[in-house]
Amino acid sequence: MHGRPSRRSSGGRRGQPPQQPQNPTSHLQNPINPTQNPGFTPPPQQVSSSAVFRPQNSRDMLESIDRAVGKARYELSAAGENVSAWKVAQSALLMLKVDSWDSLGFQMQQVPSLNLLMLTEAKERSSN
User: CA triplet 102, 112, 116: central angle to 5 degrees?
Assistant: First the structure.
């Protein structure tokens, strides 16, 4: 041990600090900090679609979702379109300005009017 240099990978020669690779243009490679790269324009920030729809509590949220489902069902019916749970659910998501049921924090079956529509469809299919 005495007299032999250690085999540590973190340091250079004995008594010298580890050497860092030098890059004279490294200040141009950091697009995050505009003071280091003044020519960089960051891309516009996208607002998460789930941030658009946020009532205070889960009961209020579920009621809002249920109202959107009811409105979607009414609009599809008034337009003379076939009313299915899938179409109503997709239309409600568009009204709520969200991408998916996951972003709402609820499953389709948890929304009372949508659940009733799905049960009605299931009964209809089983009777045929």
Answer: 110
Q: Which two tokens stand for residue 101?
A: 């049921």
8 Å CB contact between 88 and 73: yes
Alpha helices for 1-111 (secondary structure H): 58-78, 85-96, 101-104
What is the SS3 assignment for 114? helix
pLDDT tens digits along 43-71: 554 444 444 455 568 889 999 999 999 99
* Number of Cα atoms under 13 Å in the Cβ half of residue 124: 8
Q: Please, are residues 52 and 46 in contact by the beta-carbon 8 Å criterion?
A: no
Q: Which letter does DSSP use for residue 18 in this model?
A: P
pTM tops 0.90: no
Domain chopping of the chain, boundaries:
53-127
Distance of CA 73 to the CA centre of its chain: 26
Token representation of residue 26: 């490294």
Residue 73, classified by CB atoms within 10 Å of its CB into exposed (0-12), middle (13-18) or buried (19+), is buried
